Amino acid sequence: MIEVMAIKIIARKHDRSFHRSWEYNTILVENETEIIGVNNKTLVTNKDLSTFTTKNRSLFYFSKESWFNIIHIDDEKAPYYYCNISSPFEKEGDTLTYIDYDIDIKVDSHYNYEILDLDEYEINRKFYNYSTQLDKRIRKSMEELIKKLNNKELIFSQEKLNAYYKEYELKSRRKYD
Question: Are 144 and 138 in contact (CB under 8 A)?
């Protein structure tokens, strides 16, 4: 049986309080600057301790340098990207953690996007008393993310996306050999 590297992903709020977690996530790439992997039918726990299991496989991209993460949800009918403005990730042992800064960008399969939760961001910006510097960093990150999307960089590239999913399928088959 092949050893498959897996991690737990935890999203926190600015005060480090628990927001959400994804239990089992297969790592495809891990280096000094990024982690790329897939989860499939994984257990998700919300801050109110309610749980659900994801329906579709999802490819995720986390960076130690960029203030966002990207998730591709491989929905059979309408695949899409869900991007979070967030802190760069931290990893300790088999747990990846990041701060969720509320603003999300949903991208359809034609690369049309919608910015979500700006109202939630404004509420939390005041509640957690985000510094002016942090607010500027978050807004700059939105611009950087949209630029990467428009240039089809990172996992926005269909070619790279397909290659990562193929690698995941191969890893999944080999772990049972």
Answer: no
Average pLDDT per block of 10 residues along the chain, 177 residues long: 76 97 96 96 96 96 97 95 98 96 96 97 97 97 97 96 94 67
> Pick the catalytic residue: 12, 16, 20, 173?
20
Residue 113: beta bridge partners?
107
| Domain chopping of the chain, boundaries | 6-172
CA 121 to chain centre: 18
Amino acid in position 115: I
pTM of the entire predicted model: 0.93
Q: Where are the beta strands (DSSP E) in the chain?
A: 6-12, 18-30, 34-39, 43-46, 51-53, 58-63, 68-73, 80-86, 90-92, 95-107, 113-116
Pick the CATH number of 6-172 from 2.40.380.10, 2.60.40.10, 3.30.200.20, 3.30.43.10: 2.40.380.10
Burial status of residue 25 (CB atoms within 10 A of its CB: 0-12, 13-18, 19 or more): buried
DSSP run (H or E) holding 136: helix 132-150
20 is catalytic: yes
